[in-house]
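--- STAGE predict ---
source: upstream dedup step, 1 unique chain passed
mode: sequence only
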Amino acid sequence: MDIPFLIPSLLSLGTIGAVIVFAIWSRRRTIERMEDDNAPKSSLAKDGPSHRRAD
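--- STAGE serialize ---
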């Protein structure tokens, strides 16, 4: 293997790894928020408030 091939492949694998880690982290946060009864409902939710002040 030569350097011109190695650098792009390492960068692409690093990027894919970072995206996978971010997706797992985001999924975990979403599940925790869905299970939290005290979390505010989205204004887009069927049972949410019709208007909500922007945070």
